[in-house]
Every structure is written in structure tokens, then in C-alpha cells.
Amino acid sequence: MASTPRDSSKVDFAFAEKRRDTDHESFLSHARMRWLKVSSAICLIVIVSYFLVDVEPRHNGGSWYGYTLGTIGAGLIVWLSLLGIRKRNITDGRWSLKAWTSAHVYLGLALIVVGTMHTGFQLGWNVHTLAWALMMLVIVSGIYGISVYAALPRSLSTNRREMTRGQMIEALAAIDRQLEAAAQPLGRSESDAVIAALDQDVFKAGLLARLTGSYPRCATARALRAFPEGSLNKAEQKVASLLSRRKSQLSQIRRQMRYKALLQVWLYIHIPATIALIAALLAHVISVFYYW
């Protein structure tokens, strides 16, 4: 029996609803946490087999069991490192970017177990341990990245107050123009404090300041201290009010800068460490076969 237009519209609506739910689904919970289950199963199998398999004289990377885990771990590392290339191709379906990212996260966590069991806890000052240490550094930095991406976007949105970056800067510029005019009747010392605040580059800050949001040399805060409450004339009160508004606007901009820095800083560790890991892994494999 041919489907009626009404039935067809129901199917289309159901498909649209399913697509919308998928679009709003986090990569961590993608496909009902399929890759978390896969990763957990891998970890469970590796841990159980580690204690069941009898390796003489003890577990180590050079045993048949160690080679098996090493091959699995090396394959995972190479595959996980391809996420950057995969991001350039946006596709739907089973191997969508969201699915790939979900697998990247959970299989990356599984590497903690696979890689560590591969070593048999035989660690030392050599290229083999270096590869393991770099792997752990990549994983830890990745965990940090997941954490900030889960928490900070909402903070970014709240801090913006529906303002764009350009609007924040324009709001600051508007306050600066008012300050410049209001500071004309002030005395020399007060004027110098305001000028110093206006001349300071609000975007010039070191990495530590951006990450912590602490600006002990803020000229605006210093200028505001030059106008103690209770002993101000009308002109000084106006300038103090504008400086207070400027400080508040600066705080919004600096919070935005801090959140973005926290979102980006882990990549400066994660990506170089991944490259170093692949190099160390290659050296590890070559040395193993050379001395085999």
C-alpha cells in the first residue's frame, strides 16, 4: 500500500527530531556512550588477562603478551593522532566527526591501561619509558582539555552578556572618551593617574596573567585608588565613577581573555607532546626490533 502524504510527513518529522537530538548530543555521550563501553571492555579484558596470563619470569614489554599489547597500543596511538586530519572532513553517520571524537577520548583513556600493562611496570631511564611518559602527558593534557571544554563555554557565554568582542572593546573606548573629557579639570597628579590608565594596553599581558586573571599592575585600579571616597569634589566623583566603570569593563574583557586562554593552552602541550610521542614510539619500536 502506498504511503499517504500524512504518513510521509510523520516520517520526516521523526527523522528531523532524531537529527536534532543527535546534533545537540555531546561527543562524550554520543550513541549512548558507545565508546565508553568499548573502552571499558578493552580495559577489563586487558586487566583480567594480565593477571591470568603466566609470563616468565615476569610481565614485561618483551614477552609475547607485551608485544600483543604494544601492537594494540601503537595502533591506537597512530589512529588517535589522525583526529586533526579527520576534523577537516565533516560528515554524518556512524563515523561522523562527533563519533570519531568520542572514540578518540575514550580509546585514549584506555591507553592508560593498555600502555601501562604493556610495560609490565618495568620502567627506567630509557626511550621505552620516555614513550610511556609522553603518552601519559598527552592523555593528561587531553583530560584537561575535555574538562575545560565541558565547563568554560557556558562561562564564556555568561560573561559576554550577549556582547561580541567588538562591542566589549567599543564599550571600553566609549568610557575612555568620557574619561578623557572628565579628567580635564583635575589636578596634575590625578590627571597623570587617569592618563596612565588610558595609555595602558589592556591586551598586553603575559601568559600567567591571562591564565590566572590577575593583573597586579593594572593602571586603572591604581588610578581609582587616587580618588578615595569621602573627599572628592564633583569633578573627581565623576572621574572616579568612570574609572569604576572602566575597571568593570576591563574585568569583563580580561575574564573573556582568561577563559579563551584556558581553552587553548592545553593544545600547546597536547599537540607537541603527540608529535614527540610518535617520534619516541618510532624509536621505541626500532630499538625493540634492533635488539630482538
Automatic annotation (TrEMBL):
Top-rank lineage group of the source organism: Bacteria
Keyword Membrane: yes
Transmembrane segments: 35-52, 64-85, 105-125, 131-152, 265-291
Keywords per UniProt: Membrane, Transmembrane, Transmembrane helix
Name of protein: Ferric reductase like transmembrane component
Origin species: Pontixanthobacter luteolus
Upper taxonomic lineage: Bacteria, Pseudomonadati, Pseudomonadota, Alphaproteobacteria, Sphingomonadales
